[in-house]
């Protein structure tokens, strides 16, 4: 799947003054790198529910999220989808596929209207050669991602569904407080079923821990929700 550039005349965002500059390692290294990125990138936009890339497709480059939220999804052998990670402004998509076989291992879906900067693969590799510090920052990014993935994996083994749902609510509220979440999306992040999420949220609401409506929840007691997340 080729990146979908914005249609019509474009005013490319200036990477040196971008709101997400301090959040992503591609543009936060130096103004020289930011200027080079601005020269080679393409601005792309995706509607909520659109795929940015799909598992098995060959990598064409790197995506940096400027606005919105993107879900990285994998499918189990029985066809169930699992949310592996959620990426917001400043985050990168597809950097692992730059090397090795060059194939995406997961699919990336826009959860809301999303804007990304696309950087072609060869341009990224040239930047790594000219600016070795980017490689060190990428290693740090990989380490952070691995730590988060391991923590999520351990939680799903050690904790029951209510504790995982509580974990999910705390994480989503901290990292993506301005985003609305369906019960299915919460379930995919928590590693459980939509029905279990519905029952658990109803119980949390009954206990006065949260309030909820169609696609939003409000945490009324962080301490009690934290206690729920720490139960087995």
TrEMBL record:
The keyword Protein biosynthesis does not apply. SMART domains: cNMP, HTH_CRP. One of its GO terms (molecular function) is DNA-binding transcription factor activity. InterPro entries: cNMP-bd_dom, cNMP-bd_dom_sf, Env_Response_Regulators, HTH_CRP, RmlC-like_jellyroll, WH-like_DNA-bd_sf, WH_DNA-bd_sf. The keyword Cell cycle does not apply. Residues 25-99 form the Cyclic nucleotide-binding domain. Residues 159-223 form the HTH crp-type domain. It comes from the Bacteria. Pfam families: cNMP_binding (PF00027), HTH_Crp_2 (PF13545). PANTHER family: CRP FAMILY TRANSCRIPTIONAL REGULATORY PROTEIN, LISTERIOLYSIN REGULATORY PROTEIN. This is Transcriptional regulator. The lineage of its organism: Bacteria, Pseudomonadati, Bdellovibrionota, Bdellovibrionia, Bdellovibrionales.
């Amino acid at each position: 799947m080729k990146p979908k550039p914005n249609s019509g005349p474009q005013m490319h965002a200036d990477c040196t003054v971008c709101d997400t500059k301090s959040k992503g390692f591609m543009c936060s290294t130096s103004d020289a790198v930011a200027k080079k990125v601005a020269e080679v990138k393409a601005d792309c936009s995706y509607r909520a529910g659109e795929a940015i890339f799909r598992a098995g497709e060959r990598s064409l480059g790197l995506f940096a999220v400027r606005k919105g939220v993107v879900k990285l999804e994998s499918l189990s052998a029985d066809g169930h989808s699992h949310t592996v990670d959620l990426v917001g402004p400043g985050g990168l998509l597809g950097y692992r596929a730059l090397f090795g076989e060059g194939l995406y291992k997961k699919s990336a879906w826009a959860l809301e209207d999303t804007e990304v900067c696309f950087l072609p693969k060869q341009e990224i590799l040239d930047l790594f050669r000219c600016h070795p510090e980017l490689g060190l920052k990428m290693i740090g990014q990989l380490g952070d991602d691995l730590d988060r993935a391991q923590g999520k994996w351990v939680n799903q083994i050690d904790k029951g569904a209510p504790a995982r749902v509580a974990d999910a609510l705390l994480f989503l509220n901290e990292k993506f407080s301005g985003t609305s979440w369906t019960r299915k999306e919460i379930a995919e992040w928590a590693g459980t079923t939509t029905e279990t999420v519905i029952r658990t949220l109803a119980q949390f609401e009954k206990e006065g821990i949260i309030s909820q409506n169609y696609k939003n929840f409000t945490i009324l007691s962080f301490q009690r929700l934290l206690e729920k997340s720490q139960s087995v």
